[in-house]
Amino acid sequence: MEIFKKVRIFDFVKYSKYGLILSVFLTIGAFVLLFVKGFTPGIDFAGGSVAQIKYEKTAPIEQIRELLEKDPQFKGVQVSEFGSKEEVSIKIPIIEAFENQDLNPIITKILQPTGHFEIRKLDTVGPKVGNELRQKGILSLILATLAMMLYVSFRYEWRFALAGIVALVHDVIITAASVIVFNIDLNLEVIAALLTLLGYSINDTIIVFDRIREKMLINKTNNIEEVINEAISSTLSRTLLTSLTVFFVVLTLYLFGGEIIVGFSLPMLIGVVFGTYSSMFVAPKLAIIFGFDIEKYHAKEIKKAKKAQEKKQLRQMYENGRV
C-alpha cells in the first residue's frame, strides 16, 4: 500500500538544519528537567500503597485529604482525581505501623463520613521490593540501549552508526523529560514505554539508513544530500503508514485506557512522533555533519567488489584444477 503513487523527491536535508536546532533546544531543556526537577518515583519504585476509590457522586477530595491528614500515620498522603470526578487516587507513603496490616478497613473507617464509596483497587509495595524494581527497571533500560548501540555499530559505517545512536538517545531523553512535564510518576509502565520506544525508534532509523545505503550503491553520484533526499522520499509512504498506525493505536489507549496506563500511552505517543521525526530530519543530517564522504565510500565498495571478484576467480580456477 502506498500513500504517494508517484515518488516526489523532497529536500529533507535542507530543512534538517531547522530540525537540528529544534532538537538541540529540546534536548538541553530535557536535561535541565532531568537534573533539576527529576522524576517523581511511583509506588512501584518508592514503595508504599495506592488506593483507587469510586464514589456514587462527585468525590469530596478536600474532605478526603483533611480526614486522612488528621491521622498522623497518614502523613504525606496524596489525594487526586483519577480519570473522572467520581474517582480518586490515594497515594500513601511507606507506613511501618501498617506494614503487615490490611489497609482496606482502616481507610474505610477514616473516610466513612465522606459518603458511600467503593475501594476498587489497593496495591502495596514494600520498600525492599520497590528498590529491586527500580534497579531492575533502570538496568533493563541501560542494557537495551547498549544492545541497540552495539547492533548499529556493527551494521553501518561508523558515522552513520554514531548518527543513529545520537538520534536514539535524543528520542529517549526527550520522551523521558515529557514524563516530568506531564507530572507522570516514574513506574514500570514508563520503563516499558521507553523500552518499546527504543525498538521502534531504531527500527525506523535502520529502514531509512538501509535505503540510503542502497541508493549509494545504485546511484554513483557523489552528492550525499541528493542520495539522502531520494532515499527518505522513497521510504516516506512506509514511514507515514507505520507511524500513523502506531500513533492511532497508542492514541486510542491514551483516550480510552484511563489513568491506569497513562504512564505507558502518553510517553509512547510522544516517542512515536519524535522517533519518526528523528529518523528523517536528525539522523541523516548528523551523518553528514560527522563528515561522511560518499566518494571514499564508493571507492571502498569498488575495492571490496574487486577483492570479492578476485576470490571468486581463484575459487573457479582451483575447482577447474588450474591452481
From TrEMBL:
Domain Protein export membrane protein SecD/SecF C-terminal: where? 109-290
How does the protein's chain sit in the membrane according to the entry?
Multi-pass membrane protein
| A Pfam cross-reference name | SecD_SecF_C
Q: Mainly resides where? A: membrane
- UniProt subcellular location: Cell membrane
Per the record's keyword annotation, is Transmembrane included, yes or no? Answer: yes
Gene Ontology CC, one term: plasma membrane
Which GO terms of type biological process are on file?
Answer: intracellular protein transmembrane transport; protein targeting; protein transport by the Sec complex
| Keyword list, A-Z | Cell membrane, Membrane, Protein transport, Translocation, Transmembrane, Transmembrane helix, Transport
Q: Which Gene3D superfamilies match?
A: Multidrug efflux transporter AcrB transmembrane domain (1.20.1640.10)
**UniProt keyword Protein transport, yes or no:** yes
Q: Which residues cross the membrane?
A: 20-39, 137-154, 161-184, 190-209, 240-262, 268-294
Q: What does this protein do?
A: Part of the Sec protein translocase complex. Interacts with the SecYEG preprotein conducting channel. SecDF uses the proton motive force (PMF) to complete protein translocation after the ATP-dependent function of SecA.
Q: What's the protein name? A: Protein-export membrane protein SecF
Q: Which organism is it from?
A: Helicobacter cappadocius
What broad taxonomic lineage does this protein's source fall under?
Bacteria, Pseudomonadati, Campylobacterota, Epsilonproteobacteria, Campylobacterales
